[in-house]
Structure formats: C-alpha cells, structure tokens
C-alpha cells in the first residue's frame, strides 16, 4: 500500500499590518519546516498559511451567531486536519492578540489532541518573550496539543541580528524549531511513499530523544 497524501503543515498568522513581521516569521518557520521535511522523506509537503486578518469579520460573526461562514469553516478544518501546526501572534498587552485568541476559541477543545504545534510570537521588545510560556503554551495545553520544546520570539532588534555567545540568532532558532516540527510530524523517522510497519531490525528511537537531539548541547 502506498501513501500518496501529502504531509500537511498549516501556519496561522495573526498579524494585522501589511507588511507584517508576524507574517514574515510565519513564512520563515513554514519554509524551515518544509525544507527539513523534504530533505528527510519523500512524501510531498503541503504548506498553507492562514491569515487571520482576512477572517476577522467572520470570526466575530461566528462568535455571535455560532455559524461559521465557508471561508472560516475551511480554515478551522485545515487547522484540525493538519499533520503539524505553526501558530504565530503579535504581542498585545503582554499576551497574544485578541484575534488570535478568538480564532482558537472556535477550535473544539479536543480537535488538536496530540497534534504537534510550533508556537511563535513577535513584539517590539525582548521583554515580552515570556508570552510564549505564560500565555501561548498553556493555551495549547488546554487544547491538548503537543507544543514543541523550541518556541520562537522575534523582537524588532532580532531581524538581521547574528546572535551572541549566549543566544542563537533568529535564523538559527527558526531552523531548530522547524526541524523539531518536522521530526514531530514524521514521528522521528524518514517517511517514504510506501508505508510499512516497523520490523524487528528497525531501531525505534523515542520521540522525546529525537527532539532532544535537535537541541544544542
């Protein structure tokens, strides 16, 4: 039996401006994930970016009426059916944006069970980086998703910065996070078009060990 379905990566961007640093970070995380998946397995990779700005009126209407318009229903289905999810928000008032929260309020609280999620955020100052841990990670824990060890925060000064002896630069963090999502989506194995059950000679490496191997010593 041959698996022909692509691996589906869905990235949700809650940026409001055009151009948007949130969308830029979303695109770079999606590209890093695609690059790693295409390098290590031969199934096709389908990446879709959902701009919540374009769905803002639909989200508000659904919260009031309980009936999602077709475009919003399609976006929600894409998120819940994805093999891996990237979620990126700008920081407002030391937390995720209202638009970001409103969208995920519409996701059934069991629909993301076990789904690997890469969380990321953008902001004007590094002081808001803890939004990833005190706001975004608990949100996806409630939704029963599996948030990856590496989260990515990009302050204004991170764009174009090379990092220093104590912290990786933004491009390095993006590559590491994208690699973790790729490992999570494939279960830590190279996935070929032909699917088979593991044999007795296969070395089964625990998922947690695969993720740990991606992190710098």
What's a concise summary of this model?
This protein is of the alpha/beta class and 217 residues long.
How would you explain this protein's 3D organization?
- With 217 residues, the protein is of the alpha/beta class.
- It is built from seven helices and seven strands.
- It has helices at 21-40, 56-65, 70-81, 98-105, 131-142, 170-186, 207-214, and strands spanning 7-13, 45-51, 84-92, 95-96, 116-123, 146-147, 152-155.
- Strands 1, 2, 3, 4, 5, 6 and 7 form a seven-stranded mixed beta sheet that branches.
- Strand 3 (84-92) and strand 4 (95-96) form a beta hairpin.
Number of helices: 7
Alpha-beta content class? alpha/beta
Mean pLDDT: 85
The portion of residues forming beta strands comes to 15-25%
- How is the biggest beta sheet arranged? 7 strands, mixed
Tell me the number of strands: 7
Provide the low-confidence segments as ranges.
190-207, 213-217
Helix percentage range: 40-55%
What is the radius of gyration?
17 Å
The outline comes out as: globular
Distance N terminus to C terminus? 40 Å
The SSE string, one letter per element, is: EHEHHEEHEHEEHH
List the helices and strands and how they pair.
Blueprint: E1 7-13, H1 21-40, E2 45-51, H2 56-65, H3 70-81, E3 84-92, E4 95-96, H4 98-105, E5 116-123, H5 131-142, E6 146-147, E7 152-155, H6 170-186, H7 207-214
Parallel strand pairs: 1-2, 1-3, 3-5, 5-6, 5-7
Antiparallel strand pairs: 3-4
